[in-house]
Amino acid sequence: MQIQTEGVMPQIPDDYEEQKSLADVGLAVDVGTTTVAVSVWSLSTRKCIATVAEQNNQVKYGYDIIRRISYATRPPLTGSAQVVESGPSALHYSIIGQLEKMFTKALALASSKAERGTQLNISRIVITGNTTMLSFVCAVPVDGLAAAPFNPASLFGFTTEWHKVRSGSVSSVCQPLDSPTADMINLYESSVVDESTPVYFPPCIGAFIGADTVCAMLSAGFPAPTSALSQSHTWEAPLKAPLLLADIGTNTEIVLYVPQQEGKPARILCTSAAAGPAFEAANISCGMPSVEGAIDKIEYNGDLVCHVIGEKNARGICGSGLISAGATLLQNKFIDKNGVFQRSVSKLGDGSICIQLTPAVYLSQQDIRNMQLAKSAVKTGLAYMLERSPSVPVFCLAGGFGSHINISDACAIGLIPKALENRCVNLGNAALAGAAALLFSKALRQKVVDLAKHSIQINLAAVPDFQQRYLGSIDF
């Protein structure tokens, strides 16, 4: 699987007093809904030594957050002699077990690159992720995330020890867990992380705007809106231009920095748009992750020409390929602005119509509609934020999906407003980069607290004309 692990690092002030040896390393961790990434950083040289990334093992409990929350909040099974692991325990031990194995793998890779005779020591860990994923890591109840008004049990923003994370005892709100299995106990006993190793969880803003977004804000260079922090740290230069940040996915987080103007203080506005799983290709007929065999680009030169990851036979289409397909089909009149098929239409075995991209891969009329619904949610959120910006902002795209889409294609189908086409900056995995920066600076840890505290949340669904905006953005 192609997982984005590179990201733009923010400026890091030199404010850690203790001296670190070449043997001391820190782990930056991004626990995503779909993927997990771990990077090993030298605390003395501030260089990344190794990175490992994998699909999140929790996908077996549900591909998206909603299904996993449902699994975690299910009532206990009764009337059965079968021993079934409880939902909270299953999700917690699944990600903890995966992290233990990834830490071992990452440290082994880093050790192979270290100076001969140097035994690396994990001195600190920073774990970021959305609010739900961090709740699973820490065994925090997710019942409040299952229904409105969506109140998370914890917004994190604290430091604890690794053994407390593993045992699900970081705070009093943690729920009781089943006893770890024999396999988990063996994994703990062979852990490369000392039990007392400090683990920092950056703060979340709300139920749908998590620590990963706050870390991305750090990577994008968002200034803290309070003047005291900027005045006390000369390393943070004032910013006079607006910044717009988006991590496009199943749940798209959007953040706007509005600089100080005409006596009005600087503000940070944030919201989330429920785009659904189309950009993950999860509800697309031939959808698949961006791995070998996935179509990731489509062009037209008299015939539809598909580029396939790994240059192999096409087995499906990934999210970036879906965007490319939408733009190419629209521009060459295979579909109209309503998304309706106009030409080169084939029929499937059940009689439904499709456009055949390759002998094995097609797009159905419903696939086009699912893409339109997803892009409409994102476009509505971006357009709403643009209206609140004093001028056209610099547009920062974060995350794996944003790193692989073609901006022109995204603008062609209306996913990204045309005004932002020439204002885009690709941050890569900004969440992981921001988490890495927090390994090195106490001032940056204070800054993310300040960023989260002073961010103003906007509920798009509560905007009076949201439904009209959303419906008006469905067509291409």
- What's the number of helices? 14
Helix-and-strand structural type: alpha/beta
Helix fraction by DSSP (H/I, runs of at least 4): 25-40%
Q: Mind describing the biggest β-sheet?
A: 6 strands, mixed
**Major beta sheet, strand line-up:** 3-2-1-4-6-5
**In terms of per-residue confidence, which ranges show pLDDT below 50 for 5 or more consecutive residues?**
227-232
Given the C-alpha coordinates, what overall shape results? Answer: globular
Radius of gyration: 23 Å
Portion of residues in beta strands equals: 15-25%
| Terminal-residue CA separation | 30 Å
Counting DSSP E segments of at least 2 residues, the number of strands comes to: 18
Average pLDDT, all residues? 90
